Amino acid sequence: MIPAAIPTFALYGEDDWQNPVGFGHIETIASRSVLHDWAIAPHRHDRAVQLLLVHEGPAEVTLDGALFALTGPAFLIVPTGVVHGFRFAPHTRGHVLTLSQEFVRRAQGPTDALGALLTRGGHGRLQGAAAARTARLADELLGLGDAGIVGNALFDALAEALVRALIADDPVDDGPGDRRLAVFRHMVETHLAEHRPLTFYARSIGTTVRTLTRLTQRHLGHSPQTLINRRLALEAQRLLRYTGISASAVAAELGFADPSYFSRFYLRMTGKRPQEERA
Length: 279
Prior knowledge:
By secondary structure, this protein is α+β, with helices and mostly antiparallel strands. It folds into two domains: 24-169, Regulatory protein AraC (Jelly Rolls, Sandwich), CATH 2.60.120.280; 179-278, Arc Repressor Mutant, subunit A. Helices cover 41% and strands 19% of the residues. The chain contains ten helices and nine strands. The strands form two sheets. The protein has a five-stranded antiparallel beta sheet with strand order 1-8-3-6-9. A four-stranded antiparallel beta sheet has the order 2-7-4-5, with no helix packed on it. A hairpin with a 2-residue loop joins strand 4 (58-63) and strand 5. Helix 9 crosses helix 10.
């Protein structure tokens, strides 16, 4: 894993809280945001996926630098590692559900839309029946109290039902799946700053570079090297935008021995020089 220079929490603002494997937590929007003047500054979760449910009122969302608005009833799923922040109005009502990254294992195979939604994220409006069902399930989860925080079968079952209610309202078209792609993504995240050759990733999923390339082109629309480069550029962008470290320090953290080469790489991938992210 890349050292976290961006503020990273299990639960926002709680530096001393360590999230165990399989944890789950739910709270109302107001319970935490009122302590921060209704503004949750950009941060990320390195071992959790987060679901924001807005039942009523507005929410301003920052997601990896992109700014957009949600008006309830609506939802947002933030995958592990994505930098996000929120600003709410005092009258906004809703819930924030935080789930351990292991929760994605509840997906029933690679074609299950549950896995796609939690891994890739998404947001949208909630229609009448789905809005009522998700609000009711969120209230039931909240009613379990602290029992859910350490991983609880009933908590997990209700949380899964809530996520699946979102899918039923707005189905995810994930297309054909392949378990090897999930392993490839995991290996990229784990070894991102090591600049491993494609042969390393191909061996990790028990195949050849040619087959790996065929898989990523068919299912993801890009070569494996392009996907790795895009992930590197995204991580660099996060560090440049949300931390005070220099471009040369970002280059070193991401495994680039030559800051000039990093600058050219960043320009090629984003159309900007690293210094422009600070402008």
